[in-house]
Amino acid sequence: MERITLKTEIKYLSENDTVLRFIKQVAERNGIKGYVSREDDRILIISQGSEEQLTSFMEELGSKMPFSIFMRSSSTEVIDHPEEKGFHIKNEDLNIIPLNRSVCINCLEESLNPTDRRFFYPFISCNYCGSQYAFLFEYPFEREKTVFKFFHPCENCKKEYENSSSFRYRYELISCPDCFAPVFYRSKSKERIAFTPEEREKLFNAIAGLVSEGKPVKVKTANGYKVIGTIHEENIKKIREIEKTGRKPVTVLITDISKLDDIAYVNDTQIKALSSQERPVVKLQAKDAFLERDLVSQTGFVNFKLVDDPVLSFIAFFLKERGIPYIFIHDISEDNLDKINDGLDHDVPIVNIQKDTEVFTVGDRILIKEGEKGILPAVLKGKPVYNISVAGDYVAVPVEDGEYLIDRKDKVLPIIDGFLSKADEVRLLDGRYEVINIPYNNIRDFKDYEGALYSVVAEHNLLDQPFVGIYLSTKSDNNCFAVRSHTKPLKQLIKIKPVLLFEDFLKTVKWALEEIKSMSPEGERLISNYAKKFPDIFKKIEKIQLDDNGRESESITAVINLISVILGAFEQNDLSYFEEPAEIFENKALDYPKRKALKVDFFLYEEEGVFYLDWRTTLRSLMSYKIAGTDIPMLSYSFFEGLGEWIVNQSQTALTKLKINNLVLAGDLFSNPVLTGRILKHLPDRNILLNERLPIDVQNIAFGGLFVE
């Protein structure tokens, strides 16, 4: 038998090493010799065997290895290599991180097999999939530290636990219906418990039946309670009223992925993202055939996701049989459960409920906008420091020399002494007080833009290099250009001219128009002409009296909100959430088909040695085009094209003058592909860096805070 050796490399941007164990198990099941190892950002597999063995091994890897958004390119080649004995993992010191992920194909096949004891079992998972973090009380990830400590494995599970060929070999959360809790139907008047496989099948079928009748149904998933239902006006209105979410977009859950192309424009990279084990939310442009589009979104763009939990998978299975290819899904708090009559429930506590992860695509790259599910907890490598960094709900702590855990602070800080005995510094976002129960030498604060920008260079192992950084975030008042030079720490270079924000945003609009009017006689004439041609906006604000109760914000989102309201893209009288007008304006740009832009003014002015982007000149420019008859989609597209061009020009100037090549982008505004795509296209010779392992905003800030100078 001829022995062949293959060398396979997979680019993999996660420090979670469970995939190495998966590869080892599949290799051993196919009689493969060799090894698997981590080589920086790559997984290296050396596999030896006959042609038949290698074919079987590669086919099983391809069909059963869960795809992750952190997986990139792969390659395989035949090589000469000494004969190996058995198959092993090089460097067995692995990071095994409990995450909340969708079930793998192996578990899904089990759960839909009528002869399997886990038939329609809603808590199915294995070493490589499912909800694990959801049930974790505290680290380390051991059964006795989870909800599962209250349930003792049955004899079948014990045998499976010791079976080295099983995907549940030594799996901490191993369980089955014989040794775990049942699910049940519950309404205000009755309850029905499902113990047997047949009863579980009937229960999930019945829940799908209620959904198909148009009723909203509450379901308890491993990520908390959700409400699902067909998309019609009564259902959407009800859940928005119950949860007081105003006009926020409602996510569409796809139950039949073969029908997605009928209702949305979707490319291969977006399909990969949706189908990944992290099961993120992806914003797609809806087609006219999606008749319910206007119920879930104010624009032509809709948030889509695939099922990510066994409970939802089973309901989706029966909905697909009924010809229902999609439904809505929405979080519901436990305080509001009694407002939905029918539901599916169980008595297993969910310890950690996580935010859905949102991703976006730029070309063939999948980047994370924001979120927790499938992303946190995370372990990242970086320059060795012994600091603790806290930013909002999140913390970053060293766990080994040059390795850091990023997680929610309520999960880590109470047991901080389990990770390190003392710290050099405690870093606090905006100096917000935290209880740290270990000794430390110093305490210092930092800003969100510093943490976000440093998180990017730390991810790319470039902490010793200079960079120009841009932070544009809908969540921050500190949007800016900043520079870390060859000799000086990070310093703000360009800021946004402050906007005075009032609780009533229409008062902010009146203040902004008064600002433009006071700039010059030309500004006063512009406002007068605009009021004559578009009187509606002025009728809304004519009785508003300005006062001293506003707060200053250097936020690009506040600026875009103003533009959206004044140009008439946003027509409501109030904001149901802060970035609502900006989102509508942004989506107008994404929906613009002609891809031709007008020249929009972006100017700087200097005040006390600081440069500011003067949004007043930008708004004046757009208002002039509006008076001349330009429609809103073209104005929106022109704004983002102009902003991108301005960023490119300012970046190029700073990079050239300071002899720097690294340009760092952070903040969720860069999830706009028009903006980010233009920057990437027009600065091809620069080293443009974004987060690839963490979200580009919020969850990245604590990690960067470790390294702020």
Automatic annotation (TrEMBL):
InterPro entries in the record: Acylphosphatase-like_dom (IPR001792), Acylphosphatase-like_dom_sf (IPR036046), Carbamoyltrans_HypF-like (IPR051060), DHBP_synth_RibB-like_a/b_dom (IPR017945), HypF_C_2 (IPR055128), Znf_HypF (IPR011125)
Domain Acylphosphatase-like span(s) in chain numbering: 5-91
GO biological process: protein maturation
Entries under PROSITE patterns matching the protein: ACYLPHOSPHATASE_3
Pfam families xrefs: Acylphosphatase, HypF_C_2, zf-HYPF
MF term (GO), any: carboxyl- or carbamoyltransferase activity
Protein's name in the database: HypF finger family
